[in-house]
Amino acid sequence: MDKIVLASGNAGKLKEFSQLFSGWQIAVLPQSDFLQEEAEETGLSFIENALIKARHASAASGLPALADDSGLAVDALDGAPGIYSARYAGAGASDADNNQKLLAALDGVPMEKRGASFHCALAFVRSAEDPVPLVCTARWSGHILTRPAGDQGFGYDPLFYVASEKLTSAQLPREVKNRLSHRALAVRKFEQLWHEEMVLPQQHQADAGKKLF
Ligand SMILES: O=P(O)(O)OP(=O)(O)OP(=O)(O)OC[C@H]1O[C@@H](n2cnc3c(O)ncnc32)[C@H](O)[C@@H]1O
Ligand SMILES: [Mg+2]
Predict the structure, then answer these.
(1) Model ipTM value
(2) Ligand 1 mean position, distance from CA 12 (Å)
(3) pTM above 0.90, yes or no
(4) Is residue 181 within 6 Å of ligand 1 at its C-beta?
(5) For the chain, which domains are there?
């Protein structure tokens, strides 16, 4: 396997993935090379939506595919916007619209009650109907500020305060976000899974072949 499709239409995510996968010996191609239409995210969890997107991209490309479904779960909003993070302020909402809606929803909520977590689910399928996908999840905890700060990143980054760094996710140097974030942690877990499920079995097969003949 030397090529996989990255099943995302989000330019911010694609940029992060290109850094997170920079050491890999695999060509990671954008789904825009293959897709006519993006998948409908009808799942009830990040994992289900990641699988839907990975299967969709694999069906369109005929290649293995990796998808990321992610979002922000805010404690004071019972986990909203969660899986609806991209469309919190409505279908086609911009990042600025979503951030504005979040600030309005948290109006008057004191800082100690503004805890939130970014979640990321990664799903990898070898083919569109792969019965044993590789799936992993990770989260990144922080607080939602009362006004945006920083111009790096995307989505809710300008509102997401990372206490350990005393900066928002949009103020962090990219290499720091790519060390701490939900996506970074999920990719590290994925690397482990990839080794266990894709690399080791091939080595075992090759070794077994040598013993047989
Ligand atoms: O589905 P794809 O094509 O990958 O692109 P998308 O933007 O629709 O992605 P999601 O469905 O996974 O929605 C995730 C939303 O959660 C937010 N989000 C996810 N990860 C984020 C991050 O690292 N920083 C800021 N916001 C993030 C952002 O608003 C995303 O649009
Ligand atoms: Mg989406």
Answers:
(1) 0.99
(2) 8
(3) yes
(4) yes
(5) 3-212 (3.90.950.10)
